[in-house]
Write a structure and sequence with these properties.
Order of helices and strands: HHHHHHHHHHHHHEEEHHEEEEHHHE
Number of strands: 8
Radius of gyration: 22 Å
Distance between the termini: 25 Å
Strand content: 5-15%
Structural class: mainly alpha
Strand order of the largest sheet: 1-3-2
Length: about 450
């Protein structure tokens, strides 16, 4: 499996029922934050689907930015091997896209779909090398024109696949403005949602500075805080979920969120009372990440300063080499109230939701509550003792890589990055994880052959 077994170091819809009426959005903790919200947030009914296509399960790898469920994340094998015939087809489609003259909407849609499909299924960096600038210009023409919803979404998916395949420090600057115009001004909710995801991907891989990352996080938070009204998408779950997910992904790039944590947590907590389970779960996962990031490793230098022992967390199994953690700042001041809300969600029982949705809420919020109480606990943490080792099982979330490999997801930042990669790469995730160094470096986790990690 190529170099996957090498050891890599870890680096460190909707309207909420309690949404507050606002004439302007709250001030950001950064001076260059997004502008004030243009619409007041108010409680109203909810539509539970991003689009008719998505609701009916008809979105393909070419147009989808959705991972649908954790189960799909945990069981994603690579597609069957193919011949090199795709290279010639891809080269032809690239030339057609760049030429563009006398092309029709339907013709561009077909070329874009082929381009996205091939870059998803294959690692094609060599095939697009030297053509990235022309391709980005071509894709932006489709994004700006919005000749059809499908062409627009395909062009944004093509942008995302291009930057993941061949990152460039120039891509973010070129695409940020056009993508934000689609997010703000498009009449299509699916286009707005795809643009939010594309903006997140291009910010992550396209050369954005720390200040630009924080500015976009503030922009995404405006969308969440206004329940979508900030981008003329009131009552729509899709853009709010997308903003929550991309905020979480981008936040993994920022080491210290002390200035952003309280405000962000406040809005995420509001979204816990949403009537859409996808919004609730996305908000909850961000909350868990904020608590995880509010702790840091205790170092020898801390001995010279006064540390409150109540802020120190030790490894419960006293594993040699595992450092103690110390709270760096309060992730959220009203933790006791938050725990009550999370506890209620972890025991959800209502006829309004399907059994599958209720199970998903209970499972996810049991994990989130556990991480808020014990920030060292990652997703699917189990306190049960493994009788073979005498140690706790710990986080038991694992992704299967082919039949022989297991990737352990024991931190929330890892889950956020995994989900972000799967939103873009879809069924091509394993192929890119094996062959694309950009993807591997964004989630540098040792792959083991321990199949026991997949047992629940």
């Amino acid at each position: 499996m190529h170099d996957l077994r090498r050891q890599a170091l870890e680096s460190g819809k909707t309207v909420s029922r309690k949404a507050r009426s606002k004439q302007t959005s709250p001030a950001s903790s950064r001076p260059n934050s997004a502008p004030s919200s243009r619409a007041a947030s108010r409680s109203r009914g909810v539509s539970g689907a991003n689009s008719d296509e998505e609701e009916n399960g008809n979105l393909s790898d070419e147009t989808s930015f959705s991972t649908n469920s954790i189960d799909e994340l945990l069981n994603g094998d690579a597609p069957d091997p193919v011949t090199d015939a795709w290279r010639a087809d891809l080269a032809d489609r690239i030339q057609e896209l760049i030429d563009r003259k006398r092309s029709s909407v339907q013709g561009r849609e077909k070329c874009l779909a082929t381009y996205v499909r091939e870059l998803t299924a294959q690692y094609a960096e060599e095939d697009i090398r030297g053509k990235e600038a022309e391709l980005v210009v071509t894709f932006l023409k489709s994004v700006k024109a919005e000749s059809s919803e499908r062409e627009t979404i395909l062009a944004m998916k093509a942008l995302a696949m291009t930057v993941v395949t061949s990152p460039s420090d120039l891509i973010y600057e070129a695409v940020c403005g056009p993508l934000k115009r689609v997010i703000s001004d498009s009449a299509s909710i699916p286009s707005k949602t795809a643009a939010i995801h594309c903006l997140g991907t291009c910010t992550f891989f396209g050369g954005a500075s720390d200040d630009e990352i924080l500015d976009n996080m503030a922009y995404l938070l405006e969308i969440v805080a206004s329940d979508g009204a900030f981008i003329e998408a009131q009552d729509e779950a899709g853009p709010v979920v997308a903003a929550l997910e991309e905020w979480g992904s981008l936040s993994t790039l920022i080491d210290d969120l002390a200035n952003e944590s309280e405000e962000a947590a406040e809005y995420f907590v509001e979204q816990l009372s949403s009537s859409d389970p996808a919004v609730q779960i996305a908000a909850g996962e961000n909350i868990a990440l904020l608590y995880e990031k509010s702790y840091r490793s205790l170092t020898e230098d801390d001995g010279a300063t006064e540390i409150n022992e109540d802020d120190v967390i030790s490894d419960p199994d006293d594993i040699p080499g595992v450092p103690k953690l110390v709270k760096n700042y309060d992730a959220y001041r009203r933790t006791d109230v938050l725990k009550d809300t999370l506890s209620d969600l972890a025991s959800t029982s209502t006829r309004r939701l399907s059994k599958k949705e209720q199970k998903s809420l209970r499972t996810n919020f049991a994990d989130i509550l556990d991480s808020v109480e014990y920030p060292t606990h990652g997703p699917r943490y189990q306190n049960a003792i493994n009788h073979e080792t005498g140690k706790r099982y710990g986080s038991r979330m694992a992704v299967r890589i082919h039949k022989e490999g297991v990737m352990k997801i024991d931190k929330w930042w890892k889950l956020h990055r995994l989900q972000a990669l799967r939103r873009v790469l879809q069924s091509g995730f394993v192929t890119h994880y094996e062959r694309n160094p950009v993807v591997f470096e964004s989630l540098p986790i040792m792959i083991s052959n321990d199949r026991k990690a997949l047992r629940n």
